[in-house]
Design brief:
Helix content is 39%, strand content 18%. The chain is built from 15 helices and 15 strands. The structure holds glutamic acid.
């Protein structure tokens, strides 16, 4: 099955983790940037399309600015990222140039993808770069990202990019060999899992929560990112990026790393965007009848099925739909603000047809704007 996917994947999103590219004490690890740039440029020459998502700005900035330890405050992290990003892209620029490959820098915030127009715009920019045979190198725009507009970690950002560009394969290069049956640092019996057909709760719980200071994500964010990509039909390969030659050899069929298969049913892009890119501004708790109508009968959400409204949102915002146990099972774009929904919840459509602010739509969330979470 790996053979059916890896050699044939044309459009690759490759995420490179901080620890591979930079060390706090020494700054950028130029030898690693150079080796990986060479390997990736060759993949490109072999007719693959490549989009890189590269971390490493903060750690490179620590070395450049001579900071004594990993910055703890947001402004200092942002300053380090901004100083480090120019080093990082400069290193890529010269290493890729040596390998005869053009690159381009793209810095994104969550807001760039949370607005559908900007999302489509970013897609056009990236696909145009690919048509021009350029490798885009993306990082979060850390210098201006505060909590509300941050992706938070590059595993999540890269998974969103895999969706954005409709990748055939999402590759996460880090300093671990892949997913193991147990924690290999503590258990010598642990074995590498070659492929994962389903991301079970066991896998999620077993993901090691430990996280190095060099990067924002640990195994947990990698599994979450693989899950996100999977919902859009994109398989994820988790691979050690420190082993020379491993990336090209695994892509031509050798064993190595862990491949997470994608699920057959692919969410359409707009629904994936509603479900996984947008951040919900509020929650609607639904009665069991409405839950069944939405999950099994493909219906829209009507006011009568809503039991409780939580949070403050405006018409057009994304909200989560919860069942009576508080489990989130869908996300959608609401037609009304939280105040209006609070006034019409639990009521029948005929009763409220003439009330102010409610006559434009019958449904609170139209099924076209509703994405079921799987
Ligand atoms: N954007 C951060 C950087 O370039 C890294 C975030 C992460 O490690 O996930 O340093």
């Amino acid at each position: 099955m790996r053979d059916l996917i890896l050699p044939h994947a044309k459009r690759l999103v490759i995420k490179i983790g901080s620890s591979i590219l930079a060390a706090r004490s020494a700054g950028l690890r130029l030898d690693h940037v150079q080796r990986l740039s060479g390997e990736i440029a060759r993949l490109k020459q072999e007719n693959r399309e490549i989009i890189l998502v590269s971390s490493g700005a903060i750690v490179a900035g620590i070395g450049k600015l001579g900071l004594k330890s990993y910055p703890q405050t947001l402004p200092l992290k942002q300053a380090a990222a901004s100083a480090g990003q120019s080093c990082l892209i400069h290193a890529y620029e010269s290493c890729f140039q040596e390998a005869g490959q053009q690159i381009a820098q793209v810095l994104l915030t969550h807001e760039d993808l949370a607005d559908r127009k900007r999302f489509l715009n970013a897609r056009h920019t990236l696909t145009t770069l690919l048509q021009l045979e350029v490798i885009p190198i993306i990082n979060e725009n850390d210098a201006v990202s505060v909590d509300e507009i941050r992706f938070g970690d590059n595993d999540t950002l890269a998974a969103q990019v895999a969706h954005l560009v409709d990748a055939d394969l999402f590759i996460i290069l880090s300093d671990v060999d892949g997913l193991f049956t147990r924690d290999p640092r503590r258990d010598p019996e642990a074995t590498l899992i070659s492929h994962v057909t389903e991301i079970t709760p066991d896998i999620e719980e077993g993901a090691n929560t430990s996280q190095s200071q060099e990067s924002r994500g640990g195994m947990v964010t990698k599994i979450q990112a693989a899950k996100l990509a999977r919902q859009f039909g994109v398989p994820t390969l988790l691979l050690n990026g420190e082993t020379p030659g491993l990336l090209p050899s695994v892509l031509t069929g050798s064993e190595g790393g862990t491949l997470f298969f994608s699920q057959g049913r692919k969410l359409p892009s707009r629904k994936h965007w509603i479900a996984y890119t947008l951040r919900p501004k509020g929650q609607l708790v639904l009665d069991p009848g409405a839950v069944t109508a939405l999950t099994s009968r493909g219906k829209s959400l009507l006011p009568s099925g809503i039991v409780e409204v939580k949070g403050t949102f405006a018409a057009g915002d994304a909200v989560s739909c919860l069942d009576a146990d508080g489990k989130e099972f869908a996300k959608g774009l609401v037609n009304f603000s939280s105040d209006v929904v609070a006034g019409i919840k639990g009521r029948r459509t005929q009763e409220i047809a003439h009330e102010a602010g409610t006559h434009e739509y019958e449904e609170v969330i139209h099924r076209d704007n509703l994405a079921l979470l799987v």
